[in-house]
Design brief:
eight-stranded antiparallel β-barrel; mainly beta
């Protein structure tokens, strides 16, 4: 008899605590480009990020993105274009207009390899880790991000098997929708 009462009380406390928060919910888009100082690659990335405020300055985030660049310092000989497609969850902490956002997730690591006229498109599942830091001005954001991917499939996955890929970028973003005090 005590167990159902405990769970009802716990549920009510969590429900009340969740409604007591006055955070910001938002939906935004970002465009990114590799930082030439850290890598010689050329390319672009895009992402869509949803955020749910859990306090005045903290948000839980969910993002999905796509990055593609032509690799000059490749792990394989030939013409290599690398592709990352991550889905990430994270926590964004704001300090006035500045923010930091660590994220973790899973997605695809792949690309196109052209070698001796043959074209291959291998890809694997990958674990992702990322951190963004930036500045917010009204609905706009700008900053720097670091994303790393590690291929997690077996050795039949080709060149991406057990490989780490890093992507340092600068980004600009725009908040499409925002709601205060949900």
């Amino acid at each position: 008899m005590a167990k159902p009462v405990f769970f009802v009380l716990l549920f009510n406390m969590l429900f009340a605590a969740g409604h007591a928060q006055k955070g910001i919910a938002s939906l935004g888009i970002r465009a990114s480009a590799p930082v030439p100082l850290f890598q010689q690659d050329r390319g672009l990335g895009f992402s869509l990020t949803g955020a749910y405020g859990i306090s005045q300055s903290g948000q839980l985030t969910l993002s999905a993105g796509f990055s593609k660049w032509k690799a000059t310092n490749s792990i394989e000989t030939g013409d290599v274009t690398t592709r990352l497609v991550p889905v990430l969850i994270g926590y964004k902490q704001a300090l006035h207009q500045f923010f930091i956002e660590p994220r973790l997730g899973i997605g695809e690591l792949g690309g196109t390899i052209v070698k001796n006229g043959d074209r291959q498109r291998p890809s694997v599942a990958a674990l992702f880790g990322a951190v963004n830091a930036g500045y917010t001005f009204q609905r706009f954001t700008a900053g720097i991000g670091f994303l790393t991917a590690h291929g997690i499939e077996n050795s039949s996955a080709g060149i991406w098997y057990n490989k780490n890929v890093h992507y340092t970028s600068i980004f600009v973003g725009y908040t499409l929708w925002r709601s205060r005090g949900h």
